[in-house]
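Our consortium's second objective concerns turning raw sequence data into structural hypotheses that experimental partners can test. To show how far this objective has progressed, the report includes one record in full. It was chosen at random from the queue rather than selected for favorable results. The single chain below, 150 residues long, was entered without modification.
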Amino acid sequence: MRITSADLTRSYQLTGFRVHDANVIGACYGDEGPFVLAIRRVDEVVTRIAFIDVTQFGFREFRNGAIISDIFVWPVAEAPTSASTHEDGAWAIVFGNHLPLSHLPAEMERVAAAGMSKYLVAVETSYGGGIAVLCNDIDVDTPPVPWTEK
């Protein structure tokens, strides 16, 4: 299912997919495909989150057993500048491995002006570091709810 604005709160928090407290159980990326996170939700359902047409992604202190707190999906032009003012912010995670924090405001403006990516995504964790992605689309595959007879 492709993410739409209906899947986001006013603060751009992803809702409806029960990602809170899910464990990251896998990640995959190749030059020709999406960046994919596999998560196990609290209800034990495994869900795949695919970040499509990725222009940049980064990890900050990511480790085994990462537990998702929230996922935020901002249109690049509306991504908060506070996401760049500290080392755990989404912009800093995306570019922090190869740019000093002082260069981030100019890089943010360059990305927004160039239209390189539609979304800045922050996968925030309560344990296990952070992930940030610049991409043009997001697809969440959740298994259908099993039909039950009443």
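The partners drew two points from this record. The first helix runs from residue 90 to 95. Residues 5-20+54-136 form one domain. Both points have been shared with the crystallography group to help prioritize constructs.
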